[in-house]
Amino acid sequence: QKEVEQDPGPLSVPEGAIVSLNCTYSNSAFQYFMWYRQYSRKGPELLMYTYSSGNKEDGRFTAQVDKSSKYISLFIRDSQPSDSATYLCAITQGAQKLVFGQGTRLTINP
Amino acid sequence: NAGVTQTPKFRVLKTGQSMTLLCAQDMNHEYMYWYRQDPGMGLRLIHYSVGEGTTAKGEVPDGYNVSRLKKQNFLLGLESAAPSQTSVYFCASRYGQGASKTQYFGPGTRLLVL
Predict the structure, then answer these.
(1) Which three-class secondary structure state does DSSP give residue A55?
(2) B1 confidence band (pLDDT: 50, 70, 90)
(3) How far is C-alpha B50 from the chain's CA centre?
(4) Cβ of B4 under 8 Å from any chain A Cβ?
(5) Could you identify which of A29, A91, B6, B94 might form a hypothetical disulfide with B106, taking C-beta atoms 3.0 to 4.6 angstroms apart as the criterion?
């Protein structure tokens, strides 16, 4: 079993829809929970990160962590075609390393 | 600031050939990482370094070697390339201290091994 599981999709939704992206993890010692966004043929870039259970908002994006269920989510409100990308969840393993999910490819259709 | 740069951007190798991928960062970061990205597999850590002169194995180190002779550079070597090493390789770096665990990624190197 992978330490971090993410549905690879692909996921295709109309513009303006609310998007929900999810990951589960197995190690309760994981500390920081991150979402990276990767446009086609580019390197990943950090979108958001959070440390504790609960919600964290940044504009149209909300990161949610439920440590009791080992479940993390990213919600995108009022989705735009420019949000089309691959979204990767990542969780810190110790002080030095990140463990990534498989990535979900998202397409927002105008 | 150029951030994290990778050389080359694309390369084709024949089985058994060797090559070195170069990663450079100008952010004075302590930690540097090499990942490979394959369809459906996400990013998998090959090797990493927590400082100049140090290296450590990641999840998929076999067939690769690394060196960190200078703080700003992290080299990934393939001694005898195999088709299974066809992938997109990403380098990343981050500060060593503090609460932020943000890794900054380069643009990637696409490698095709025939």
Answers:
(1) strand
(2) confident
(3) 13
(4) yes
(5) B6
Bigger pLDDT: A1 or B72?
B72
Cα distances (Å, whole numbers) of residue A56 to A59, A92, A101, B46: 10, 18, 20, 31
Please, what is the Cα angle at A99 between A33 and B83, to 5 degrees? Answer: 150
Q: Are A77 and A11 in contact (CB under 8 A)?
A: no
CA nearest B107 in A: which residue?
A43
Asked if B50 has any chain A CB less than 8 Å from its own CB, the reply is yes
Give the nearest partner residue to A43 out of B31, B45, B108, using CB atoms: B108
* pLDDT class of A76 with cuts at 50, 70, 90: very high
Per the listing, tokens 């490979």 go with: B36
Q: Given this model, what pLDDT does residue A92 score?
A: 85
- Cα–Cα distance between B87 and B83 in angstroms, integer? 9
Dihedral of the CA atoms A62, A68, A70, A73 (nearest 10)?
-10
Q: What is the pLDDT of residues B60-112, one digit of tens each?
A: 999 999 999 999 999 999 999 999 999 999 999 998 765 467 899 999 999 99
- The reply to whether B3 touches chain A by the CB within 8 Å rule is no
B48 with A96: Cβ contact below 8 A: yes
Dist CA A105 CA B4 (whole Å): 24
B107 in A contact zone (CB under 8 Å): yes
